[in-house]
Amino acid sequence: MQPRRLPVPHLVWMIAAMAPYLWIAIGSALGGMGRYWTGLAVTRLLPVPFPWGTLLINVLGSFVIGLFASLTDADGRYPVGVTLRLFVMVGLCGGYTTFSSFSLQTLTLMQDNRMLEAGLNVLGSVVLCLVAVWLGSLLGMMGQR
Q1: Predicted TM-score of the model (pTM)
Q2: What is the pLDDT of residues 32-76, one digit of tens each?
Q3: Which terminus of the chain is less hemmed in, N or C, by CB atoms within 10 Å?
Q4: Domain of residue 87, residue span
Q5: How many CA atoms lie within 13 A of 99 on its CB side?
């Protein structure tokens, strides 16, 4: 008995439907590798217990997503398709930024009774990432003029 084959139109549709997921997966893998490399580099430069690498990663990722979002939306200077936006914003930025790591590291600081550093990490991450996404968005909007 031979396996049942899908008609060609169904197979093409299935492949096309899976393409965004493949691009997100590739972007996530690349973003994760970038996060790992950046974290190692910052730890070598600043061998202290404060999570500077995670803070830098979150700020840079927030800047990139703000810049890319504003430049590439339908009204942006460089509008791109949905798949490329998913690749960069969900894949690359999602794989690169580390709010889950941030949360765990902040909890560890708190559990080590390092409340000042935990508070600085929360405040720095939230404020600096909001400023970075705003600056990225602003830069993107300026590029449209």
Answers
A1: 0.77
A2: 999 999 999 999 999 998 999 999 999 999 999 999 999 999 988
A3: N
A4: 23-142
A5: 9
Residue found under tokens 């890319």: 68
Give a yes or no: residue 17 inside a domain: no
pLDDT tens column, 68-78: 999 999 988 99
Report DSSP letters for the chain, one per residue.
-PPPPPPHHHHHHHHHHHHHHHHHHHHHHHHHHHHHHHHHHHHHH--SSS-HHHHHHHHHHHHHHHHHHHHHSTTSSS---HHHHIIIIIIIHHHH--HHHHHHHHHHHHHTT-HHHHHHHHHHHHHHHHHHHHHHHHHHHHTT-
What's the number of domains the chain is made of?
A: 1
